[in-house]
Structure formats: structure tokens, C-alpha cells
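Late entry, evening session. Most of the bench is empty. Finally got around to the prediction I had been postponing all week. Sequence below, unchanged from the version circulated by S.P.
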Amino acid sequence: MTEQQPYMPAIIERKWQEKWERDGLYRTPDDEGRPHYYCLEMFPYPSGKLHMGHVRVYTIGDVVARVKRMQGYNVLHPMGWDAFGMPAENAAIQHGVHPRKWTYENIDHMRQQQKRLGVSYDWDREVTTCAPDYYKFTQWMFLLFYRRGLAYKKKAAVNWCPHCVTVLANEQVENGRCWRCGSEVTKRELEQWFLRITEYADRLLEDLDTLTGWPERVKVMQRNWIGRSTGAEVEFAIEGRPETIRVFTTRPDTLFGVTYMVLAPEHPLVPALIQDSPERETVEAFQAMMRSASEVERTAADAEKLGVFTGAHALHPLTGERVPIWLANYVLVDYGTGAVMGVPAHDERDFAFAAKYGLPIRAVIRPEDRPLPDPLPNAYVEDGVLTNSGQWDGMNNREAIQSITAHLERVGKGRFATSYRIRDWLISRQRYWGAPIPIVYCDHCGIVPVPEEQLPVLLPEDVSFEPGTVSPLATNEAFVNTACPRCGGPARRETDTMDTFMCSSWYYFRYTSPKETTRPFDPEAVRKWLPVDDYIGGIEHAVLHLLYSRFFTKVLQDAGWVSFPEPFRHLLTQGMVIKEGAKMSKSKGNVVSPDDIIDRYGADTARLFILFAAPPDRDLEWSDQGVEGCHRFLNRVWRLVMQNRDGLAAPAGDRNGADARALRRKVNWTIKKVTEDFGERYTFNTGISAIMELVNAIYAYPPEADPATKAEAIRTAVLLLAPAAPHICEELWEQMGESGSVHEQSWPTYDPAELAVEEVEYAVQVNGKVRDHIVVPAEAGEEEVRETALGAEKVREWTGGKRVVKVIVVPQKLVNIVVKG
């Protein structure tokens, strides 16, 4: 090439991508002599095309991986596909394409897009969750949970998406709608498989404090989702019946203020309570109405409180008073015990309900210094002392919480208790494109797990995808009908598949030994690589994937498969890519195609803009002008090298000249800044800004100054830019006559001595206004700085003939002279 040749990213990028793949540059070496580093971006669902959000997360991860390699780490940086899920099945329904064909075609296309970005993945470790050699071990995981008593089946009211024709976990219902299709979610009673994540609730909550490398907002979201509350469980007898109603309350101090009970409309006691009640028809009509209402509609703070009296009464555990039992829309059967005690005087929601239905309102807590008005205009929710509460009258209500609960324990009517918002994880899905649950049902043996040696339970090819088919696997009799593994008799396979989050909750283990055929992973390989050092992905996974992955890791630790309790040391949650103030979407017409940007400007420009436009944890506003600016900068770097490459080997000149010393200081400062921003703080935008400043300084370097200093500055600029713009820097490295790949070079280090400043510039103020600037030796004392400032010509214009009252010196920054007269 000649120096007149322009920067041609399409040719350069194809050249180096092919060479990297040919040479296996990014294969993870089996090198025990170097420290290990595991950098991982959340793997994508193969929807067919990458979007700019993908480009952002993969570019961030790639910079981290490339910097760590250059810093001497043996880096594991893999990629795979979260490949089961509803979109593939919907494509089968809409277009008559088998989900497997649709999925693998999309994977092929997206893999090529990722390679065009120049991401340094070890493709030899690629995993695909819909491949039998992977989901065999997802089924193995289910059996591990089953053997440990953590997988069970029960009939339950579940979230049902009528559009996707499947059950959703609580975490997959967003504002009352399906997280995938947005349809309104209803309730259904079905036999379903669950995992006992609630048994790990305390550990999941408490271990959040150990995750010092996680964003606080993610930890807050998980804390709120787990939702641990301490209080009392109280038993209310039912008049004329043997059953009792259990309620959990954080406010047992208000127990004497209970004037009604509320059950969820779906509570299992309701049929018995209304069996002979004159209210039966009214209650059943209310239940039917509630079945068609979403949880969000029922529990929203501004939702109208609706209820109906059952005709039955409970008995107060301490007074024996008859308490009417109601049903209400705001009580959910799967939250707490599905029953609450109504204390309208001290709860705003209960107050509104009691006022609407004419129920008694009895105050049992008052301020210490005055009585409450009667009647109460609204609920009193502050602390105070008890009243109308028998032996507890006059006691501080916080003390009464403990005292009343202890009394309930003594008389057998309650106990201290802890409640959780989190519910067991519902994993059954009535769809085809997922890992089959490895269970068979035998009339003789009951529920029988499929033996490990018979895994995987393969998905059949021939099933019906007709809309409305509740369980596609049930349409294939050859799949359904099987032999019992225990007795050999006729049996039926489970026809539900597993929630796709089962597959993504352990994939990061599989990357360490993806060719294992008898185990999900090699424990020794996992010990070497995990926990993951850097995990990068979206905040939307805070209470789904991230919580489930933590759960899986703790179960595997308890089972002796891993030695650590948490899977991810450091978590980076990147912001969205938006355009014109809104998230990119086809419906808004503001989508920018990564392929179009790469075709026009090259992958390095796309990568540089994504990194430069905003800090990684903030939303990034797309800017065509910003893309153009990044492309111009890469052209400047190209010209800088090509115009100076013949002088890169020139002998050293005066290395102690002022210009050479200034450029060396800039080089060392830039190395320090980029090392911190790329390798520690992950503020890539400011790191790139520092490289841009260095390039400007090299352009401004006088031609007569030391050429060796300039050559070293150019070499450093290329090395520092290489993780962000890998193709152009690889080409420039070769054009400079350097040997080997730029990405296999050692990361530059700075010399602290070169950062020392020889001179310092001070702003000089007179009575608070800047009148001049002075330059003094860095070692100058306060007296020298003061005298230099007072002697400056422009300063004398403002101080002449006036009395200097005070001179204030702020070291390294400012001189403020106060004058009068």
C-alpha cells in the first residue's frame, strides 16, 4: 500500500476476520501459566437479526476481553444461543416452518453478523440450548432438583397467556400482561411443575450483600422481589367449622382492631364457607368476575376496592368476637396465606373498604399525647400507644408487636413468622419448543423420573402446531406412550416442556467444557474459570435470569458440583440504544440496522460510536452525526500512521526538548487514563476521548522535534485503540512493520515519573474576577507564586494605586488578590 491509499474498512475488516479465524487467534489457550479471566455477555435469543442493543453489549464485552488479553490474562470469551422459546413456535404456526429449521437458520445469520463486528469469541465453545447435547443436561438439572426435593407438581392457579397458549411464571407477568406478546394474562387451575426457590429465599437475599461488583439498583430489585417480611402468623377459628384461617401480618399490634376478614376469591376454603350460605350465588358471581381480572387490575393502588360477604364468620383469637368473612379483589391467593385481617382504623386500604361497605372501624393505636377523633376521618398509620387492647393498653405499639405475638404463641393461636413475596418458580410450559420434562406417569408406580442414562428425552418432529393446541407434544402418541423405567409397564410421558429460563440458568457453566458428554460440565474446568469475572447484559433480567442463575448456583454448590455460592463477580447492565428519545422499534420507524452501518462505515466505526456516545450504564441516543464523527476520527488515525510510517524507525533526536517531554507526558497520561477507563471503571467514552486527544497532540507535534518520541506516541495510540477498533489497528500495526498481531501485544504501561508536571498554570483573580494567567515552576512555593501573580503586567493594571488586603493561593490552581481603594 502507499500512503495515498484511503481507509477502506470493507476490505480491511474482511481480510482480518478471515485471518483471525484461520489462525484461531481467539481460541482459549490451555495455559496454566497465566491468570484466568472469564468475560461473558448474555447470550441472545436467535430472533434472526442483531439490533443495536446487541451491538452495544457485544462491543462492551469485547473491549473488556481484548484489554484483559493484552494485560496478560488467559481469557475465556464465548458465545452461544438461548434458542428455545415461543417465537420459533409462532413462526411454525404462521409460516409453516418447523421451529428447528427457523431457529438454526437464524443462528447462522446472527453468527455471521457477530463475526462481521469482529468480536473476539472462541467459537469452538459455542453452545445452543435447543441442541440435544445441551438440553440433555437441562433435563439432568431438573432431575438433580427432583432428587433433592426441590422439584414438585401441584395443582395451582397459574398465570395463563391466551395468545401464547401457555403458563407464565410470576416474573414473566409485567403489569398484568405477558412479557413476550403483551396479551392480558388470566388465571387457570392446572397441574404444574414448580422449583422450590423459596427454600433459598434467605440465602438469595443475604448473599446480595456479598455482591460488591453488582449495581445497587439490581440488588434492590432482587431484594424487593424476594420481599422478606417479619411479623406474626395468626390463626382465626371459623364459627361452626373445624378449619382455621391463617393470616400473616407485620402488625400484630393492631390485632384488637380487626373488624372483618378477607379471603382471596380463589381461596380453597371458599366453597365450604358458602355451601349452605344464602350468599352463595352472589359470591360465585363475584368469583367469576375476579377470574377475568388481572392481578394488576385487582391490586393497583387506585383500583376500586370490591368485595362480597360470604355469610360466614371467624372468631377473634384473643376476644372470641365474631368477625365477618369477606372476599375482596385486592387479596391474592398466592401472596402470603391468601387471607388478610381487616384493620380499617390503621390501614388506608382497609379503611377505604370498610367505609364503602359500612364495616366497623375501631381505633386501637393513638398518639401518646392525645386521643384520636371519633369518628376517624382517615386511617391512623403512625406509631403510638395501644388503646382498646386489653392488657396491652398504654404500651408502645412497637413493643406490643413482640408482646402480643409472644402471647399468641403461648396460647397456641399464632407464632412469630417470616413471609416472602417470592413464590416457587413455575417451570411448566404447554408448548413444544422447549426441553421436555424428563418425567413419566405410571398407573402402578406413579410419578417416575427418567433415568439419567436414558437422557435426553428427545423432542419429536411430528407434532401439531394448530392454534389453540394446549400441548403440542400431546398430539404425538409415539412420544406420549412409553414404558415405565421402573416396572416396564405402560406409562405416559409428561407433555409439558420447561421454561426457557431453565436453559439459561446454567449455560455459563457449560462454556468451560462444552464437549462433555457424560456430565453437564467438568467441575475442574469450572473451578478454574468461575465465578464469571465480568457479566454484561440488560437490566431487564434482574429478577428473571439473574435471580434464577443465582438459585441454580446455590443448588449446585449444595450438591457438591461447585465450590462457590454466586456465579457472577461483576455485573455491568448496559443502557438501551434509543433514537429520537424512544427505544428503537419497527412500529416507531426508528430502527437503525447494524448491517447498514457496517456496510457504509465499517464495523470499527459502529463499535467506536457505540462506546463513545455514552457511558455504558446510560441510555445511548443514536446520532448519525456522531457516527460520521467517529468515522472521520478513524480516517485521521489512518492518515497519521500512513503519513508517518516511513519515519517510525528514525533515530532518536533531542528527547529532552520541551516538545518531546510534553508529548511523552501526554502519552503516559493517556495510557493511565485508558487503562483505568477500559480495564477498571468501564467508562469507555472517556477513554476514547483521551485517545482522541492524544491523536490531536501527535498531529500538533513539531516536525523538527524528536522523531522517536513521535513514533512511540503513534505506536501507543494504535495499541490503546485496538480493543475498540480491532480491524483498523491490526492493519495499521502491519503497515507500521510490527510483527505479530496487535491484539497479542502487551498492554502499554505508563511511567509515573513522566507524569510529573514541570510547570503549573494559575488563574489570577482580582476581587474575584479572572484578570490574567501565570506559569510558574511546579516546585514553586507559595511566596514565589504570590510574587509572580502580583508582578504580572495585566494584574498590575487592576491593583495599581490600590491597597492589597489579602492574597489567597489555592495550590496548583488559583491566586485571588483582594484589593481596596
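Two things to note before I forget:
The radius of gyration is 34 Å.
The longest helix spans residues 658-681.
Will write this up properly tomorrow.
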